[in-house]
Amino acid sequence: LAALDAGHIGHATLDVFRVEPLAGDHPFWTHPSVTVTPHIAADTRPSSSARVIAENIRRGQAGEPFLHLVDRARGY
Predict the structure, then answer these.
(1) Among 6, 25, 4, which Cα is nearest to 75's?
(2) Over pLDDT 70: what percentage of the chain?
(3) Mapping DSSP to helix (H, G, I), strand (E, B) and coil, where does residue 75 land?
(4) How much is the average pLDDT of 47-69?
(5) Which of 1, 17, 35, 59 could cross-link to 13 by cystine, CB 3.0-4.6 Å?
(6) Rounded CA separation 66/5 (Å)
(7) CB–CB of 4/34 below 8 Å?
(8) Cβ neighbours of residue 10 closer than 8 Å, sequence gap 6 or more
(9) Where residue 70 falls among pLDDT bands split at 50, 70, 90?
(10) 30 — phi, psi (to 5°)?
(11) Whole-angstrom Cα distance, residue 10 to residue 32?
(12) Can you tell me the mean pLDDT for 21-35?
């Protein structure tokens, strides 16, 4: 956080932590230059992501649940 605050690093996107889920009071959650993701970082292939997006559009129009939703109850 010191490097972010000093401007040495512009932004940090963090996906993995020593202890998960990250504690609700951890300063990463509120720091303006930190983005916390729910441990799902991976290479994204355009062909597979396009299929998931299209399927979620179809599901939304049909009133069905979406694929790959984040479980906010787990702290994300």
Answers:
(1) 25
(2) 97
(3) coil
(4) 94
(5) 35
(6) 37
(7) yes
(8) 4, 33
(9) confident
(10) -110, -5
(11) 10
(12) 94
At residue 74, does pLDDT exceed 90? Answer: no
14 vs 35: CA distance, rounded Å: 6
Question: How long, in residues, is the chain?
Answer: 76
Distance separating alpha carbons of residues 42 and 68, to the nearest angstrom: 13
User: What is the CB-side half-sphere exposure of residue 54 using CA atoms within 13 A?
Assistant: 6
Continuous H helices in 1-76 = 2-5, 46-62
> Over the range 3-37, which residues count as b (16 or more CB within 10 Å of their CB) and which as e?
eeeeeeeeeeeeeeeeeeebeeeeeeeeeeebebe
Q: Residue 76: what pLDDT?
A: 58
By three-state DSSP, how is residue 12 classified?
Answer: strand
Q: Confidence band (pLDDT; 50, 70, 90) for 75?
A: low
Structure-block tokens of residue 14: 């963090």
